[in-house]
Design a protein that fits this description.
Elements (H helix, E strand, L loop, with lengths): L1 H49 L9 H8 L22 H13 L14 E7 L4 H13 L5 E7 L1 H13 L8 E6 L8 H7 L2 H4 L4 H4 L5 E5 L3 E3 L3 H5 L11 E5 L8 H5 L10 E9 H6 L1 E2 L8 E2 H12 L7 H11 L4 E3 L18 H6 L3 E3 L11 H12 L6 H14 L5 H4 L2 H19 L3
Parallel strand pairs: 1-2, 1-4, 2-3, 6-10
Antiparallel strand pairs: 4-7, 5-11, 6-7, 8-9
Helix pairs in contact: 1-3, 15-16, 16-18
Length: 443
């Protein structure tokens, strides 16, 4: 009798487990099905928008798009169990975007003097070394002339000068630089000063301060270029007539993104924008009248900032980035959205990899925000930073930068971001090889 009872218990348990399994399969197949139809609808839109570029979509596209199905976060799929390559709605935009750059041949305008790339950075406090490492990565790869606009606290100026004057023999002819104090635009400086924290908000004023500069690439100090700066710069030529700035999304996944969960102000798109890498046509910024939710008339950039801050100052968390999000929320036609591999942050790998374009083509620009270059939390990010920091101009890029970096990254595979460490060097390998090819041809 006891034996039958035990058998019965075992059977019941088995039946229960089977039922659970069938139910979970059913739930996830339902999600997959909805994901597909959603995807198709959005994709259609994307194609129209991207026009000619999207017509070239190849066979890889189908694969791409299947990985972009939108799974929902639920009891069955908590965010830490999402499949590794799931990415949010931004993928769909990216799949049409890719074709623009793929066809881009590096411009080697035969002999004629090229316009320099204007690169701006704002450095305060302890950021001297970090900023110099960023500039070093910009000089080391690529070939177009650079002009650095460095806004820094006065006590950092001598440090910048000392480093930038002794930098490389041949590379030195690639860049010029201008040092500026942290400053407000001359007209109504007093009012700016009352409202804005000078260091944090400096970059909002660049279009007004650098009146004679047409276009500018602004980057945070914790950026590292793994692909020549001029490749990003070349996107300016792809702006349509209403676009005046290019930025990457703050996140790929609305369900775990910061803005979609916590923001108490309007923001761009579904996940907001990250302003750590911002390409601007400042001529257009100075000319445009921006729609806003404060006045019925559209306002010029210089007249927009003060009322915007006054209205939202109690609700913003990330300072100037939030203000930019509010501005582009009301003027979405002015933004050129670039894919996540141009602004790759720990967010893209700490819960599993969610930046699909980086998986395919590698990381182009690394953004070590939240101080990850300087602590133990993301050793793979720190490894890239230290590799550039150690590198001295004149040394062989493969022997002294790439190989030691690959070695260091292999030691970080116990972390989520370390597991995708090969993405950090995927594009860099190519950049280094191109750069060396130039050197050996005696450029
Ligand atoms: C730096 O400035 C000098 C003098 O204005 C100019 O001749 C040179 O071409 C500039 N170099 C770069 C890389 O822009
Ligand atoms: C600021 O946040 C509060 C609370 O979420 C909200 O009620 C208020 O409308 C927000 N202010 C603005 C200017 O959006
Ligand atoms: C920026 O926009 C202005 C005005 O539309 C245009 O003349 C200029 O060529 C643009 N700059 C670049 C680098 O595309
Ligand atoms: C430029 O592109 C943006 C983003 O795709 C779009 O919203 C805007 O309407 C376009 N502007 C023009 C004039 O086509």
């Amino acid at each position: 009798m006891r034996r039958y009872l035990r058998m019965l218990l075992a059977c019941a348990l088995f039946a229960l487990l089977s039922a659970l399994y069938v139910f979970s399969q059913f739930a996830s197949s339902l999600e997959r099905a909805t994901g597909r139809t959603d995807g198709r609808a959005q994709r259609g839109d994307g194609r129209q928008g991207a026009g000619k570029a999207a017509q070239k979509s190849g066979p890889g596209d189908q694969h791409w798009y299947n990985r972009c199905r939108s799974l929902s976060v639920s009891y069955w799929n908590p965010y830490w169990r999402l499949p590794p390559a799931v990415c949010g709605m931004n993928c769909l935009m990216e799949s049409s975007f890719r074709y623009i750059l793929r066809d881009e041949k590096p411009s080697r305008a035969g002999g004629s003097r090229q316009e320099p790339v204007h690169l701006a950075v704002v450095a305060c406090g302890q950021r001297l070394d970090e900023t110099l490492t960023m500039l070093k990565s910009a000089v080391a790869l690529g070939r177009q002339p650079l002009h650095f606009h460095i806004f820094a606290e006065d006590e950092l100026h001598s440090g910048f000068r000392a480093a930038l004057e002794v930098w490389p023999g041949p590379g030195r002819s690639r860049y010029n630089y201008t040092l500026y104090p942290i400053t407000f635009p001359a007209d109504n400086a007093a009012e700016w000063k009352k409202l804005f924290k000078p260091c944090a908000s400096q970059r909002l004023f660049l279009p007004i301060i650098l009146k004679d500069v047409d276009s500018l690439l602004y980057v945070d100090t914790d950026i590292l270029f793994l692909r020549p700066v001029e490749d990003l710069w070349s996107l300016l030529a792809h702006f349509n007539s209403s676009q005046l700035a290019a930025m990457a999304p703050e996140h790929e996944e609305p369900r775990i993104a910061w803005y979609s969960r916590f923001a108490r102000h309007p923001y761009y798109g579904k996940t907001g924008l990250n302003s750590g890498v911002m390409l601007m046509n400042m001529t257009r910024i100075r000319e445009k009248h921006f729609k806003n939710d404060m006045t019925s008339v559209a306002l010029r950039w210089k007249d927009l900032l003060i009322p915007l801050l006054q209205k939202y100052k109690l609700n913003i968390t990330w300072g100037d980035q939030d203000l930019l999000n509010i501005i582009f929320h009301h003027n979405p036609e002015s933004l050129f959205l670039v894919p996540c591999q141009w602004n790759y942050r720990p967010d893209h790998c700490i819960y599993g990899s969610n930046c699909v374009p980086a998986e395919q083509e590698g990381v182009f620009i690394l953004h070590g925000n939240r101080g990850v270059y300087h602590d133990e939390k993301q050793p793979s990010f720190r490894a890239v930073y230290q590799a550039f920091q150690r590198y001295t101009f004149g040394e062989d890029l493969v022997e002294s930068l790439l190989l030691p970096l690959e070695e260091d990254l292999r030691k970080t595979t116990h972390t989520y971001c370390g597991r995708v460490g090969h993405l950090f060097t995927k594009r860099l390998q190519l950049s280094v090889r191109t750069s060396q090819g130039d050197a050996s041809r005696g450029q």
